């Protein structure tokens, strides 16, 4: 194993998914795999369902090369991220659906697997006529693989005994803080290292810069919940305790919501209308001095701003609260259970997530999924922010939100309404969170996670 990669893995810790990836890697090596046999699938077609997302805009530029190398045609259906899940569930639930490969948000994985909509990838990786011997599954960033690809282990959605591989990270992310160096220098300010420093800075920047202090997601439903979760885990909170009892209204959770309310109060005025794209745009347009969210910002700053603006952007770690922590999430790709061409779909999945294509998609505006990409000297010269990403991944938490099958309902229908009311109507934070506690407990009881009455 490359020494730099070993050091990075040691810094990150050994995650439960290693037992699975090591097992697949060992069996593959024992089988003396010769490489994928593309000839059997030349002329066939793979249909992939993707969201309108920067990483997949970059991916689109790679597909002609895949067809040239393999003879497999690729048809793409691209949809708005707000509507893609419903379409995917319809198609994958049919006896004869339209999709072979699908891109999904990390928080959908357990629901998709519970409904038997995705195929287990392990048999494909062990198939000698399909497996690329140079693929190196252990090179996939382990925290991303666990958060996005594994289902059935610890808590039902992490690694460990009983976990199986249903998807690969492709468009994965963690959270970092970006800031305007020029404004911080002019105001003689230092980027916040802790939440205490962050909360002190917000009104100061708002008052002295006459810009929004920090941008954020804020739209009702998933977007404002995501914004709250960014602060919840670093501040010592969680949605449920180890026995699945809701804890999202305790002191840490209230503290996280109060922090979000302060960000909204001192940020751009339209935060309650911002989804991820709007939030990113507000920072790139110079409407906010700080950004705390997905590492996707790296490539978007470079692609969608002037060189002068990008040179004035600094990056630092997600601030520390009770603990150092950052989100894990983003997008993955998996094979639909009713795929008409599952082997061809696997060949495309494997090709897209290979070492070579991981670097290529980054150069085109995508994000990395592999350790080798982060430590490659040429890639480090091209993307100096990868040094920060490596450091942030040490603190990334694969369990920063509970990816149970019921999560999307809890996220959108209940927490998403309570948090939105708190940030737009200035409702008491604890009362807002407590207002949906009975409904969430009922969902958990109905799901078999809790016993007793609501």
Walk me through the structure:
The chain has 454 residues and is an alpha/beta fold. The protein has a domain of 222 residues: Periplasmic binding protein-like II (D-Maltodextrin-Binding Protein, domain 2, 3-Layer(aba) Sandwich). Helix content is 46%, strand content 13%. The protein contains 23 helices and 10 strands. Strands 1, 2, 3, 6, 7, 8, 9 and 10 form an 8-stranded mixed β-sheet that branches. Helix 10 runs parallel beside helix 12, helix 11 crosses helix 21 and helix 21 packs antiparallel against helix 22. It is globular, with a radius of gyration of 22 Å. The N and C termini lie far apart (52 Å). 49% of the residues are buried. The mean pLDDT is 93.
Record the SSE blueprint.
Elements: H1 3-12, H2 17-30, E1 45-51, H3 54-60, H4 63-70, E2 73-79, H5 84-93, E3 101-105, H6 109-114, H7 122-125, H8 142-149, E4 150-151, E5 164-165, E6 168-180, H9 181-186, H10 195-209, E7 212-215, H11 222-232, H12 251-266, H13 276-284, E8 288-294, H14 297-304, H15 307-311, E9 313-316, E10 328-335, H16 342-352, H17 355-363, H18 371-375, H19 377-382, H20 386-393, H21 407-424, H22 429-435, H23 437-446
Parallel strand pairs: 1-2, 1-3, 7-8
Antiparallel strand pairs: 3-10, 4-5, 6-8, 6-9, 6-10
């Amino acid at each position: 194993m490359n020494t730099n990669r070993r050091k990075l893995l040691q810094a990150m810790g050994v995650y439960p998914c290693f037992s699975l990836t090591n097992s697949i890697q060992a069996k593959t090596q024992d089988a003396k795999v010769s490489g994928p046999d593309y000839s059997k699938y030349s002329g066939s077609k793979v249909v992939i369902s993707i969201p309108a997302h920067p990483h997949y805009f970059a991916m689109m530029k790679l597909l002609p090369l895949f067809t040239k190398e393999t003879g497999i045609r690729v048809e793409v259906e691209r949809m708005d991220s707000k509507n893609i899940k419903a379409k995917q569930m319809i198609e994958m639930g049919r006896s004869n659906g339209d999709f072979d490969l699908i891109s999904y948000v990390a928080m959908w994985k357990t629901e998709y697997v519970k409904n038997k909509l995705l195929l287990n990838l392990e048999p494909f990786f062990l198939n000698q006529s399909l497996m690329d011997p140079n693929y190196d599954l252990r090179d996939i960033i382990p925290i991303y693989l666990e958060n996005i690809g594994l289902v059935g282990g610890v808590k039902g959605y992490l690694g460990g005994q009983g976990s199986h591989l249903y998807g690969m990270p492709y468009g994965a992310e963690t959270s970092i803080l970006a800031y305007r160096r020029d404004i911080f220098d002019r105001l003689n300010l230092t980027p916040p290292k802790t939440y205490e420093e962050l909360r002190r800075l917000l009104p100061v920047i708002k008052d002295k810069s006459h810009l929004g202090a920090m941008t954020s997601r804020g739209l009702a439903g998933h977007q404002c919940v995501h914004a709250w979760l960014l602060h919840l885990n670093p501040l010592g909170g969680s949605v449920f305790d180890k026995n699945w009892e809701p804890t999202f209204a305790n002191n840490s959770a209230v503290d996280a919501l109060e922090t979000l309310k302060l960000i909204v109060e001192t940020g751009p005025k339209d935060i309650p209308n911002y989804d991820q794209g709007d939030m990113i745009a507000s920072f790139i347009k110079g409407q906010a001095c700080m950004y705390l969210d997905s590492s996707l910002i790296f490539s978007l700053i470079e692609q969608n701003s002037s060189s002068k603006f990008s040179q004035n952007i600094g990056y630092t770690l997600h601030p520390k609260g009770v603990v150092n922590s950052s989100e894990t999430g983003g997008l993955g790709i998996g094979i639909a259970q009713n795929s008409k061409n599952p082997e061809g779909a696997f060949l495309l999945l494997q090709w897209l997530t290979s070492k070579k294509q991981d670097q290529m998609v980054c150069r085109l505006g995508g994000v990395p999924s592999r350790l080798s990409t982060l430590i490659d000297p040429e890639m480090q010269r091209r993307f100096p922010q990868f040094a920060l990403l490596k450091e942030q991944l040490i603190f990334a938490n694969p369990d920063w939100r509970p990816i149970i099958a019921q999560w999307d309902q809890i996220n959108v229908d209940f927490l998403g309404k309570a948090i939105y009311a708190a940030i737009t109507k200035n409702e008491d934070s604890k009362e807002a969170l407590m207002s949906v506690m009975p409904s969430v407990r009922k969902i958990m009881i109905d799901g078999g996670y809790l016993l007793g009455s609501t």
